Amino acid sequence: MSITYTPWPGSFAKKYRERGYWTDRPLLDLIENAPQENIAVICGERSLSYQNLCSQSKRLAVYFQDLGLCTGDTALVQLPNVAEFYVVFFALIRLGVAPVNALFSHNKNELTAYAKQIEPKIIIASNEHALFHDSAFFSTLSVSSKELPHVLLVGKSEWAESLENVLSSSTSTLLTALPSKAHDVAFFQLSGGSTGTPKLIPRTHNDYFFSVRRSTEICHFTAATKYLCALPCAHNFPMSSPGAFGVFHVGGCVVMSPSPDPNTCFELIERYRVTVAALVPPALTLWLQAAQLNKAALSSLQLMQVGGAKLSESLARQVPIVLGCQLQQILGMAEGLVNYTRLDDDFETIVTTQGRPMCSLDEVKIINNAGEDVAAGEIGELITRGPYTIRGYYKAPDHNAKVFDSEGFYHSGDLVRRNDNGYLTVVGRDKDQINRGGEKIAAEEIENLLLKHEQIMHSALVSMPDSMMGEKSCAFIVPKAAGHGMKSIMLRKYLRGLGVADYKVPDRFEFIDSLPLTPVGKPNKVVLREEIRQRLQSNSELDKTL
Ligand code: J2J
């Protein structure tokens, strides 16, 4: 049985195939067609060749097959930046089991929400994550039949099977299972979201493979590419733009970094002669500072890709001077569309825009509130459809009706301007989301959790400006009673107690008597954002006078 998703209409699918965009090959080809002797992944002191990656993922697939997993099943995976992430991914792909790859920063709240949606047959996680130190959390994750899923952990564990054990044990069983069909769901990406429950993005082999392949062409990836995976490996950017999968497609090498911290990364770049790195803007800021002291370590670096959140022009201009390499800006989204500045673009285009779509069949419109196309150079919402942009979230008909229109365009909620050459510049957002330096927070999700607090009457989460992160989050709270005695620290503790990922816990709380409302009676977030901006400004004025 295959996993249900909203397919592209037949006429579109036909066009994508005729153009050679969809090749009807499984993602497994990414590693199987690479030169097997090349090193695919370096992780700590370990180097895995493509042959190792293929054989380990095959061994693991046999184990999954023995457990009874098969095409159409799903898996919940949460791993840090380690080589096992890819071993597990391709092992599942071999059987047609579709994973959701949760971020390592995700916690009980997020994993539970994903598990509810996909009802996984197996959980694959790391003993490094506090949630998996014992079986307490796992035992809450029963699937619909009330059976617990299987569990497999990376690292030693007293309560679960370990991946290392499986890989080191021999088997005579043959792998008979096959990947799902190329037009079927290969795995789920995570949506940054703007709703109460995190939405899942079904990605097919055909659409994702195309996105990866085309990205490698645009970014000139070759077998000589050494790519530093410093962002969370499960995120769409380091996975596919061109990311690790792009590297695999061309037989290059991925160097895993546990974090984007410049000290760790610079050492890896120097040691392995890394050629490409991908960062979000706050990490880039730290790299620019660190490079002032240690530019020599970066001598092999040729390309710095930056995306996930708006990069300021002033930071962009520093990249070639301070890091000694070329900058590429990327405006991407896990739903599909990815825009790149091209390597041969003029410098002004590279520092002032976030690129243009990667292929000619990406249809991008920029519309006003009435749904009409705006004039060139005017600001509007980016809407799009194309060969690798989904037509619907997983099992979310109500939300889909809101963000996909009748022609199949995805309404991104990004406010952009397009220049005469088709390059996009992001100028704002018209979705209820905070972009905390590339990490997305759906306001409604946090507001709903706050509303469950017995002393809270209303809550509204908005972004506030931050020099390092671009944006941070501020929760406006209307208490039920005067003299409530609530403190920020208590509410932080409360949210952490609910198992909310740390990055989603509001950076600031403001207690107010009532929320300003829009004419239709919704919290007026424009007013709230302005309010917090002014409060921050007067605080910093105050700091200056002290
Ligand atoms: C401003 N906002 C940006 C940019 C994304 C490559 C790169 C990034 C992502 C990603 C990705 C931005 N400037 N350069 O999936 O493959 C904001 C927009 C967008 C949302 C998508 C990839 N680059 N954004 O960030 O799904 O608001 O994907 O709609 O996490 O991030 O977030 P996400």
TrEMBL record:
GO terms for molecular function: 2,3-dihydroxybenzoate--[aryl-carrier protein] ligase. Residues 35-394 form the AMP-dependent synthetase/ligase domain. Residues 445-522 form the AMP-binding enzyme C-terminal domain. It comes from the Bacteria. Keywords: Ligase. One of its GO terms (biological process) is siderophore biosynthetic process. CDD domains: 23DHB-AMP_lg. InterPro entries: AMP-bd_C, AMP-bd_C_sf, AMP-binding_CS, AMP-dep_synth/lig_dom, ANL_N_sf, ATP-dep_AMP-bd_enzyme, DHB_AMP_lig. Pfam families: AMP-binding, AMP-binding_C. Pathway: Siderophore biosynthesis. This is 2,3-dihydroxybenzoate-AMP ligase. It comes from Marinomonas rhizomae.
